[in-house]
Amino acid sequence: MSDWLQTALADKLPGIAMNLLFLAVTAAVTVICARLVSRVLRRVTERQKRAGSTGSATILAFCRYLAVAAVYFAGFSVLVSGIPALSAGVNRLLAAGGVLALVGGLAAPAALRSLASGLMILAFKPFVIGDVVRCVDNDISGVVEEITLRHTAIRTWENKRVIVPNSVMNSSVVENADYTDSRVCTFLEIGVTYESDIALAKQLLADEIARQPDYLDTRTPEQKAAGAPAVQVVVLALAESAVTLRASIWARDNGTAFAVKCAVQENILRIYADAGVDIAYPHLVVRQK
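The chain above was modelled as a monomer; its predicted structure follows.
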């Protein structure tokens, strides 16, 4: 028995060693190719982002995952075809393909929905990488940073990443600040006292907004010729202790509008104080008999 075992191992050992070497080399080549493809496509995607071609960057980012998956599938196919024993086992599994498909469909419906939703997002482009979006249903706001086969990554204003399944993004109501037009109008509301000069308060606020270098004048030539104001300031409400003014601030994008609004709020405190316009705040007057 010992002699027979030694003879059998001596005959089969070279074949086993070659099979193990084939497995190792194929696996290593597959991993190296997958990483190389991922790195190349990532660099091309970043180049498209810097060039401002967000639509192409979105397609490339999505295709990167498809390409990596294709490389791994090709490597697995080579492994199976090169080893007869492994190939026979896989063929038996494929013979039960109907059962496997049924089990896979029942076990991962969410993953399949996310994959299909990702393809829908890629095809119809309700948003692309770099867009400022807000998921109305979930109240998630931020910049679209990545769209993969399964999920969409959103970078919030706190520089955190929110991972949302594509199925959720595809079925949610999404507010896109960059869809066809990236210009943004944000409102600035300030309450002044009833004793203040309301007309002066409106004019000072409009002048300060128009003075900002990043303010965007959206008036048409006809409106300018008709004398329409560069900045619209209206009396929004007559509150219990304040007259609420609302100004419309236009800017080229969401970040610029936020910066202009902050600058105006800081400067208007000094401007109103110098002009004798009082900003209202809640207070009580107690009279003693």
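The domain at 127-176 is CATH 2.30.30.60 (SH3 type barrels.).
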